[in-house]
Design a protein that fits this description.
The structure holds two protein chains of two kinds. Chain A is an alpha+beta fold. Helices cover about 35% and strands about 25% of the residues of chain A. Chain B is α/β, with parallel strands linked by helices. Chain B contains 16 helices and eleven strands. In chain B, the strands form four sheets. Chain B has a four-stranded parallel sheet, sandwiched between helices. In chain B, strands 7-11-10 form a three-stranded parallel sheet, with helices on one face. Chain B has a two-stranded antiparallel sheet with strand order 1-4. The chains are: A alpha+beta, B alpha/beta.
Chain lengths: ~160, ~425
């Protein structure tokens, strides 16, 4: 398991104190603010001089998750955590939930073309592509309550 | 580098600056700070030379570094390359050809219709779009502020920027070569000047990206040449000399619409105004807009006609451009095959995509960076969040960052200062 894969229980020599955490919230249906959380996350990662490619991948997953929250959820709490090894993004929404996660996660259950997805920046990036873009991805959903996405990207 | 690094296409005149916060708030990249009651471009590496500060300054303290007409004298042969925006500055009765002839009378030995170069470049861009089909969208490069914005804030999108030389450079390169041969001159004896609607073009001449040096010598603001040219226009008679070679396709670059008759096979999208450009680049960075072939971005509202160094109102100028496009048609008279014969030699700039990676740092630096970020967040929590700018930074977050960087102190914030003084008074009262 790469370092920091599950932050609990692993003592990282220097990163325990250096850990940075920030919370954001997204309002469902607020298109005026859509994209602003991703943008703030980008600014923070940029100021931390995180590798450009990693910022790019983080933006792809964050923007997609943010747009999903604006489109489908009532509200969503976002937690950005950065350690010396890993950038982690959690999107915890209060919303309709996903009845069939298996179907939602199925390759091709998306409107994006194959080439777009292969390149990782296709229009209509869905959950499978967020999974592809992040180093680790987990999803939990309860119908009628909401969905929680957890994505981690390793700092090279 | 050193001093040269701090060169910008604008400078702030300390004598004139009244220390209001207008430019600091308008700066889209937060490069300006107020120090000792005067504004300055404090963060040189953030400045993208967009000229927004110049546009908004209420007392004209922000000045363009473009040259004055009198500075032409140092060159043996003087060449004018006017932006097509110049064609939209005068009345309807003034034709582009009149303007080119008047520039002649003004003392330019050679005057070249740059709108024609726009048409040449458009053919080269179309070729690039045809050859490079796997990356979309391709982003335009003629606005130097946009290119600098991408380089600094969207480095991952740099390889989307079209690596085709901009019209002013293509024209200057060809003119210098042919004039030097024709007149048997040393190329340095020829002074080639771009007549520009914005100061940003100057930065692309002084500090070009992707090439060793610019083919142009300097830029002159359209508003500085406006009146001399108005007088020269009166001397233009029924001259038979035809200097205008362009059609509406080239002239349309003044309103940043290179798709006018130019890219029929491709889907293009035009975005004008820096705030809008930033919005659209955020989307491109997030993997959107891949169905667009060519994304044209101009920093100024309305495109180049909205540059801060023009005279005519941008809406009036845009209407004028529309009239000119109608008048001169949307079909280029250029021979496409002839242009493409020198595609590699005259148009392609392979150096543009050379990766400009942020220096990857070690874990120790990241530990430090994370500590600083925590400190910034902690400071933000203490600041009032009014973004008033009285501290000399554009908003509370930026002040917090400046404090963390050692460039400011907490009591630069007037509210923090008041609190400190109140605490002091309270302390004295308790003692007595």
């Amino acid at each position: 398991m790469p370092p920091g894969a599950t932050s609990k229980g692993i003592v990282l020599s220097e990163s325990v104190d250096a850990r940075f955490r920030k919370l954001f919230s997204i309002e469902g249906g607020n298109f005026q603010a859509a994209g602003s959380v991703s943008k703030q996350i980008k600014m923070i990662l940029k100021q931390l001089s995180i590798d450009n490619d990693l910022i790019w991948r983080a933006m792809i997953v964050a923007y997609e998750a943010e747009m999903n929250a604006v489109l489908y959820a009532r509200s969503c709490e976002v937690t950005l955590s950065v350690s010396t090894h890993c950038v982690s993004l959690q999107f915890k929404d209060r919303g309709p939930g996903i009845p069939d996660i298996g179907l939602a996660m199925t390759e091709g259950y998306s409107t994006a073309t194959r080439e777009m997805r292969e390149r990782g920046f296709g229009a209509g990036l869905g959950l499978p592509n967020m999974k592809k873009t992040a180093d680790r991805f987990s999803i939990e959903s309860v119908v009628g309550e909401g969905t929680t996405l957890q994505m981690e990207l390793d700092i090279p | 580098m050193g001093a040269h690094d701090s060169f910008h296409s604008i400078k702030i005149d300390e004598q004139r600056c009244i220390g209001c916060v207008t430019c600091m708030h308008a700066c889209p990249v937060k490069a300006i700070r107020l120090r000792n009651g005067k504004a300055s471009v404090y963060k040189h590496d953030l400045c993208i030379d967009c000229g927004e500060c110049l546009r908004v300054c209420p007392v004209q303290a922000v000045q363009s570094m473009t040259s004055k007409v009198v500075e032409l004298a140092q060159f043996k042969v003087k060449v004018a390359l006017p932006s097509p925006v110049l064609y939209a500055q005068y009345s309807d009765a003034t034709t582009p050809n009149d303007i080119l002839l008047a520039l002649h009378k003004l003392g330019f030995d050679h005057v070249f219709d740059m709108a024609l170069s726009c048409e040449m470049v458009l053919i080269a861009i179309e070729e690039y779009l045809n050859r490079m089909t796997d990356v979309r969208p391709i982003i335009s490069n003629y606005c130097p502020a946009v290119v600098r914005l991408i380089l600094k804030n969207y480095p991952n999108l740099m390889d989307r920027v079209v690596p085709i030389e901009v019209p002013r450079e293509v024209a200057a390169k060809q003119i210098r070569k042919s004039l030097a041969a024709e007149l048997k001159l040393d190329p340095t004896e020829i002074g080639i000047f771009h007549l520009t609607p914005c100061p940003a073009k100057l930065i692309s001449i002084q500090k070009p990206i992707g090439v060793e040096r610019s083919n142009l010598d300097d830029a002159i603001a359209i508003r500085d040449i406006y009146i001399p040219l108005l007088n020269a226009l009166k001397e233009v008679g029924d001259d038979d000399l035809i200097l205008q070679k362009s059609s509406g396709v080239g002239i349309s670059w003044a309103i940043s619409r290179s798709n006018v008759g130019g890219l029929p096979q491709h889907r293009s999208l035009t975005v004008r105004g820096l705030e809008e450009v930033i919005h659209i680049l955020d989307q491109v960075e997030a993997g959107k807009l891949t169905d667009i072939d060519y994304l044209e971005c101009a920093a100024c509202p309305g495109g180049c006609v909205g540059g801060p160094l023009v005279v005519q109102n941008r809406h009036v100028a845009a209407a004028q451009v529309d009239t000119l496009i109608e008048q001169y048609g949307v079909r280029t008279r250029l021979d496409r095959r002839k242009i493409l014969r020198s595609y590699e030699e005259n148009y392609l700039i392979p150096g543009l995509h050379r990766k400009t990676r942020a220096v990857s740092h070690g874990q120790v630096d990241l530990v430090k960076a994370l500590e600083v970020m925590n400190q910034v967040e902690e400071t933000i929590g203490r600041l009032p969040g009014m973004n008033c700018g009285a501290c000399g930074a554009p908003d509370c977050r930026t002040l917090a960052e400046d404090i963390a960087a050692g460039d400011a102190v907490l009591t630069d914030c007037v509210f923090m200062k008041i609190k400190e003084l109140e605490d002091e008074v309270e302390g004295h009262r308790r003692k007595s």
